[in-house]
Every structure is written in C-alpha cells, then in structure tokens.
Design a protein that fits this description.
Length: 118
C-alpha cells in the first residue's frame, strides 16, 4: 500500500475544514493519509500541510518524468532530481548527540594544597 503522505490544513489556513473526498475530511488538527501523487499536484496550496515519511522514499525515487515535473512546478523549483526532491520533502535524520565526557576532577586527580611557609 502506498498511501503514506499525511495531509492536514495548515495553521494559517483560511478554511476550518475541507472534504478531500466524499468520505474524508481534514482540519488543522486532524489529517488523513493520501497517495504521493495526490499530494504532488497540491504541494503549493498554502491551505494544506503535508508530512512525508521515510516510507515515501521508494515511491519518490521512482517518479516518472511527468511527476518529477509536477513536483518541481509545485515546489517552485526547476529541474530537480528525485534525490533532490527527497532531500527537500523528507525530514532530515536526527543526529545523535553524544554526551560530552565529564571533566570534573576526582579527589585523586586534585593537587594537594601546599602552604608557602618557611
């Protein structure tokens, strides 16, 4: 099944709810899953907010020339490859931030206090 793109109304949408087909309605809070090719023709609509996932990567990488052109047009860009489209639409992988090693000194590492008495 290739229905992986989620669409909902954008936060600045001028409408409160929208029937995207006779049985599915979206709001600002509630979205529905739609086909990638359905989303392609509506990407530039400022009332809609799309969320693409890793599951869409395969279908996006196999787009034909016609749909590559549609994506480029809807995104306001020219001559993007499927890899560039994927990079623009998919969320970037989260980087793992490793904790820095502690720099606190233990008692064994601290220098003994010396007095300068003579």
């Amino acid at each position: 099944m290739r229905l992986m793109v989620t669409v909902r109304l954008s936060d600045n949408s001028s409408i409160r709810r929208l029937n995207i087909n006779p049985k599915q309605e979206i709001t600002r809070e509630e979205g529905v899953v739609v086909p990638v090719k359905w989303a392609a023709t509506r990407l530039s609509d400022s009332n809609l907010f799309f969320v693409f996932g890793e599951e869409d990567k395969e279908e996006l990488s196999n787009l034909n020339e016609r749909f590559l052109g549609i994506f480029c047009s809807e995104m306001g860009k020219e001559d993007l490859t499927s890899k560039q489209i994927i990079a623009e639409l998919l969320p970037s992988p989260k980087k793992t931030i490793l904790p820095k090693p502690s720099t606190k000194r233990t008692k064994a590492q601290t220098k003994p206090k010396t007095s300068l008495k003579k």
